[in-house]
Design a protein that fits this description.
The chain has 113 residues and is mainly beta. It contains no helices and ten strands. The strands form two sheets. It has a six-stranded mixed beta sheet, with no helix packed on it. The radius of gyration is 13 Å and the shape is globular. It starts with a strand and ends with a strand.
């Protein structure tokens, strides 16, 4: 399982970013995928999960209504569209295949003015 996150960066409060996670080493279209984040000094937080067919499993209350998870099985990629970003969204963001070992390198998102 190999996951590479990208799309992070610096954005002002209220702004938007789209994160991407490119997957390889497994049959992507067969698996649930999820996004997590970890802020400094905090535990890793599950944000959203999506079924192989694109159905939404859940969103964390902290991002509900602002973040959208979606996937493109033809591109072996899962996305996280993040709107109305807040300073408390600052964290390293990771994608994960539930049940697989290890984590990717993550992508840093910084929300500040």
């Amino acid at each position: 399982v190999h996951l590479v996150e990208s799309g992070g960066g610096w954005v002002q409060p209220g702004g938007s970013l789209r994160l991407s996670c490119s997957a390889s080493g497994f049959t992507f279209s067969n698996y649930v995928m999820s996004w997590y984040r970890q802020a400094p000094g905090k535990e890793r937080e599950l944000l959203a999960a999506i079924t192989p067919a694109g159905g939404i499993i859940n969103y964390a209350d902290s991002v509900k209504g602002r973040f959208t998870i979606f996937r493109d099985n033809a591109k072996n990629t899962v996305y996280l569209q993040m709107n109305s970003l807040k300073p408390e969204d600052t964290a390293v963001y990771y994608c994960k295949r539930p049940g697989a070992d290890g984590w990717g390198q993550g992508t840093q998102v910084t929300v500040s003015s």
